[in-house]
Design brief:
The chain is α/β, with parallel strands linked by helices. The chain folds into 2 domains: 283 residues, TIM Barrel, CATH 3.20.20.80; 119 residues, PGBD-like superfamily/PGBD (Muramoyl-pentapeptide Carboxypeptidase, domain 1). The chain contains 18 helices and 9 strands. The longest helix is centred in the middle third of the chain and has 19 residues. The two termini are 24 Å apart. The relative contact order is 0.12.
């Protein structure tokens, strides 16, 4: 995908609109100079029982890194051949945490990596004991690198966590080799997926972190998440796309659908293993664009929307049935009759309004991508009924009972195999799109 020409670096007014810069970057540099001492001290401190640091000390750090939640939900969905085709020519990278320990960065660079994100902190009590080796080692090997913070909205406030991140490795400096810091906000390692926060409270928490990070560094942090989590826990809130770059995690064959508010992604986490240690990533642009991103001066090209159908008032049939089931999965109480009537349009408008979409009552690409969710064996409810009804339209003979049992999984696997998809039995964005075609 060709990137639109970037304005000259001298165009500071335009640049400031996209990524405001910090005039006093020396403060961030001083923070980084003291990083090794800070990391070592924090890595050996005795952690409070039940804190994030205690969990890491107990040896379960793998459950607290970028993509850990997705890995458990999307196992087997990665399609390496499709990803290679979709990312040909794009700069490759990786993200690591303390679980990877001492990384051989010379080997990583020799294998073609151009950039890395390194976990620095979690909550307000944990710093990675491997951060210095990973962060400084990747830079020494010639990679452009940045730090990320694993968010814990259940343990402390966003401002305190942003400050802790900046003070322990997450600062940004305009040196051309430091990526803006990233907020890893995703599935909770345990318990409630959304850390027990409601959607509006979660949006406020993320906004407070973003604004404090910007206040401290002069740039907005990238946001790492999955579309499924974003829909579930923020209501597919659209308000961050104008400030924070998107680091999207999707282990299918494409980064889409994206969360609402972002026209394009900046980094795509494609898998939880591969050529490099840790998770595998690609940058959406050229190597020169990656360098511009390190200067907080890059806007990625828009993502392809894909072939989603359009459904509107007056239509009838199986696509309307699917819309009605999915609306009910989001709290509507429609009679599922396959008729796009006034009640269905009103429910669509209500859903679009809550999701921050254009409330036109028409179900197009953006609305479909907000309505769908991952559906898998063991699930039940209207979304499963939508899957079963669609499978029946493609030749299955399932009872539409809303229970995702062995028969439904077998039908999903059969459909995926016939459609050339990864046959894992999980209905994710790619399978939904194929079902709706």
């Amino acid at each position: 995908m060709k990137t639109p020409p970037r304005p000259a670096r001298a165009a500071t007014a335009s640049r400031a609109r996209r990524w405001p810069r910090l005039a006093t970057a020396t403060a961030a540099s001083l923070l980084l100079l003291s990083l090794a001492q800070t990391s070592a001290a924090a890595g050996t401190a005795t952690a409070p029982a039940g804190s994030a640091a205690a969990h890491h000390a107990a040896g379960d750090e793998r459950a607290h890194h970028a993509g850990s939640g997705l890995a458990g939900r999307a196992a087997g969905q990665a399609d390496p051949a499709a990803v290679r085709a979709a990312t040909a020519g794009l700069p490759k990278g990786l993200d690591v945490s303390g679980y990877q320990e001492n990384v051989n960065w010379a080997s990583v660079a020799a294998n073609g990596a151009s950039f890395a994100y390194v976990k620095a902190t979690e909550g307000t009590t944990y710093t990675s004991g491997q951060f210095s080796q990973q962060y400084n080692g990747s830079a020494a090997a010639g990679l452009i690198r940045g730090a990320y913070h694993f968010a814990r909205p259940d343990t402390s406030g966003a401002v305190a966590q942003a400050d802790f991140f900046v003070d322990h490795g997450g600062a940004w400096t305009d040196d051309g080799r430091t990526l803006p810091g990233a907020l890893d906000i995703e599935y909770a390692p345990s318990g409630n997926t959304c850390y027990g926060l409601g959607k509006s409270t979660m949006v406020s928490w993320i906004a407070a972190f973003r604004d404090e990070y910007h206040s401290r560094t002069g740039v907005y942090p990238a946001i790492y998440s999955t579309t499924d989590w974003w829909i579930t826990c923020t209501g597919n809130y659209a308000g961050f796309g104008g400030t924070s770059p998107l680091w999207i995690a999707n282990y299918g064959s494409a980064p889409t659908p994206l969360p609402n508010g972002w026209a394009g992604y900046t980094v795509w986490q494609t898998d939880d293993g591969g050529t490099f240690p840790g998770d595998q990533d690609v940058f959406n642009g050229s190597l020169d664009d990656l360098k511009a991103f390190a200067h907080a001066d890059y806007t990625p090209p828009p993502a392809q929307a894909g072939n989603w159908p359009t459904v509107s008032e007056g239509q009838s049939g199986r696509l309307v049935t699917t819309v009605q089931y999915l609306l009910n999965a989001h709290g509507a109480a429609l009679t599922v009759n396959g008729q796009f009537d006034a009640a269905t349009r009103a429910a669509v408008v209500s859903f679009q309004t809550d999701a921050g979409l254009t409330a036109d009552g028409i179900v197009g690409p953006s609305t479909w991508q907000s309505l769908i969710s991952y559906v898998k064996e063991g699930d039940s409810g209207p979304a499963t009924k939508a899957v079963q009804a669609e499978l029946n339209e493609h030749g299955a003979a399932l009872e539409v009972d809303g229970e995702f049992g062995a028969a439904t999984r077998a039908a999903v696997v059969s459909f995926q195999s016939g459609a050339g998809l990864t046959a894992d039995g999980i209905v994710g964005p790619n399978t939904w799109q194929a079902l709706l075609a």
